[in-house]
Amino acid sequence: MKKLLDLIETYQNYPKKGIDFKDVLGIIQEPHIFQELILKMSSSHIIKNAEAIISIDARGFIFGSAISLQASKPMIVARKPGKLPGELVKKKYSLEYGENSLSIQKKALQKYNSFAIVDDLLATGGTVNCVSKLLASNNKEVVGLLVVVELLKLEGRSKFDFPTNSWVTF
After folding, report:
1. Which residues span the domain enclosing 34?
2. Phi-psi region of 162 (alpha: psi -120 to 50; beta: other; left: phi over 0)
3. Which residues, 6+ apart, have CB-to-CB distance to 122 below 8 Å?
4. CA-to-CA distance for 112 and 104, rounded, in angstroms?
């Protein structure tokens, strides 16, 4: 989708030196393009084969919410530390530029067995790998991953044993 590419801005050396940050927020400022993207993502076989969507903090929430609404699928969130109440399942992971952890409400996971993971960008795969391992440790299945942008040279998808759909690649 050529129009999408034009709306993704690159910020060099952000959040630290050596990182070229791809900012997808320009997409949501163009309602017709955003809507077209959400319609395509929502019709993916990955979404159709999942009982629920799990969106990753924070930009994944934007796309996951819209896909959830369009596909009439429930959405669960994977959040950074200190952002969710209740009993949580947690896992640490490494980023290109540091370390973090993600949490999911245990009660939300109990209702569903198969999940589509949604995020804005796939780089090294650390964040998605964290979510998939967290789900696996709770006897849940990942049917696939949907991302707007994929950084191919970082080979993030090679860490997964499930399908990955991306709409823009760098």
Report:
1. 2-169
2. beta
3. 128, 145, 147, 149, 150, 151, 156, 157, 164, 166
4. 13
Burial of 152 (0-12, 13-18, 19+ CB in 10 A): exposed
Cβ atoms of 129 and 93 within 8 Å: the answer is yes
Tokens found for residue 45: 């076989």
pLDDT in tens, 136-146: 999 999 999 99
Q: Which residues of the chain have pLDDT under 70?
A: 1, 96-97
Displacement of CA 80 from its chain's centroid (Å): 13
**Average pLDDT over the chain, rounded to an integer:** 95
Q: How many domains does the chain have?
A: 1
Residue with tokens 């090679």: 158
What is the predicted pLDDT for the residue at 1?
62
Question: What is the model's pLDDT at position 96?
Answer: 64
Q: How many residues does the chain have?
A: 170
What is the model's pLDDT at position 12?
96
**CATH code of the domain containing 130:** 3.40.50.2020
